[in-house]
Structure formats: C-alpha cells, structure tokens
C-alpha cells in the first residue's frame, strides 16, 4: 500500500498540489484522473520520487519514503516498475535488450537467468518471436506490451503507469488495460495509473482518485461513478454525451429496482 498525507507542491509562487491525502491499494488498479493542469501528473511524479513534495509525507507500507536519503530511496525504487507514456524504449536496442536493461543495471543475475526472466516476461504480455526485433519494427500496441514487460522484469511490488493508452486505438487500449489489471491481480502489485481514458475508468477503476485544482475532489470505484452526485466528478466524467446517456440509463434502472 502507498499512502500520501497532506501532500503540497509549489513551483515558485504557483501551488500545484494543495494537501492530497489518499491511499493506493495492493492488488488493485488505482487510477488518478483529472483535467489537464489539475496536478495529477505532478502527484504521480512525487509518488515515484521524480519530484519532491514541498511538504507532506509518502508512505510505502510503513516506510516514510519522503524522509529517506538517496541510498535508502534506491532500495524502494528497486521495488518499483514504471511504464512511461511513450513506452520510452531504447531505439538502438532490441526488444529483449530493452527488457533486460533493468536486470543489467540492478542485479547480478547470470546471463542465463536474465534470458529466462526476459522470456517469462515476454510470455506474460503475450509476445513471442519478437526478441530480436527493434521497437521501430513492432506496432504501437506491441511497444506498450514491451514497456510493460520491462516494467515488471524486476518483479516489482509497485507499478506506475503514465497514460498507458495514449496513442492507441480503442481495441488495443482495452487489451493493455486488461493486461495491466491481470498482472496487478496475479502479482498483488500496487498499481497506480495516471489516465484520462474514460474506458479505463469504467473498466478497471478499482480505486479512483479525482484531482481537481490541486485537491482531492472525489474518491471511489467504478461502480460508484455513474451514481455519484459529486458535481466535480460529474463535470469531468460526463462531459461525453455517451456517458451522460449511460448515467441516465443507470439511474433509471436503480429507480425501477
């Protein structure tokens, strides 16, 4: 579990986060949602340790991550996997070299052990026969899956995903969502996803955190979204006419029941 307690973050005179207190649970897909500029990306970067909060605390389990020195933070980061928005694969490396990179950097495994781990991760994301291909030789959806394989190669306890469906067609986006959810459940990972994809919210939103103007505006799960009367959530979620009709239909069914 990850907990944040009264997280504030300012850049100069601009206060971006204004006291975020929330929790992210293991074995759950925890989604951070919000409009552009709401502060959700800054919050994700603070959780990972890429940005330091101005004040407040972040706990990984019982460990106060905010109070650790660089050496101690490295111990926590060894338990963290990261899927970047653009996959962030190395163009000059093959698929297997990209996935093996964290093993080369952070472990003393033998070459055979690394090869077995790479094979296992590729199998987990349903990719075969692509070991020797370069990122430019596979599709965008396959690049995302390679990115996921690299993110889980160190068997992380925590997985962070920044807009994992960015640039993908709807069908491929669903595949990526389901893959992340299944890995999260199978490995009991605390997965935190920064997204604006409403399909992700409604399909895999086990724990949804809405950030609005730097504050925690709403928290719940996908089953509570359509029936929520929170005005800020409604304005964000139901900007889509399709979702407006979906919500109206859900309310009618609940009233009939």
Q: In brief, what are we looking at here?
A:
With 257 residues, the protein is an alpha/beta fold. The protein has helices at residues 40-48, 70-77, 95-106, 111-124, 140-152, 170-187, 198-204, 222-225, 231-237, 241-256, and strands at residues 2-11, 14-24, 28-33, 55-60, 63-64, 80-83, 158-162, 190-194, 207-212, 215-220. It has a domain at 2-79 and 156-256: 3-Layer(aba) Sandwich (Rossmann fold), CATH 3.40.50.
Characterise the protein shown here.
- Residues 2-238 form the ABC transporter domain.
- Keywords: ATP-binding, Nucleotide-binding, Transport.
- InterPro entries: AAA+_ATPase, ABC_transporter-like_ATP-bd, ABC_transporter-like_CS, P-loop_NTPase.
- With 257 residues, the chain is α/β, with parallel strands linked by helices.
- It has a domain at 2-79 and 156-256: Rossmann fold (3-Layer(aba) Sandwich), CATH 3.40.50.
- It contains 10 helices and 10 strands.
- The protein has helices spanning 40-48, 70-77, 95-106, 111-124, 140-152, 170-187, 198-204, 222-225, 231-237, 241-256, and strands at 2-11, 14-24, 28-33, 55-60, 63-64, 80-83, 158-162, 190-194, 207-212, 215-220.
- The strands form 2 sheets. A 6-stranded mixed beta sheet has the order 6-7-8-3-9-10. A 4-stranded antiparallel beta sheet has the order 2-1-4-5, covered by helices on one side.
- Helix 3 packs parallel to helix 5 (140-152) and helix 5 packs parallel to helix 6 (170-187).
- It is globular and about 60 Å long.
- The model has no long low-confidence stretch (mean pLDDT 90).
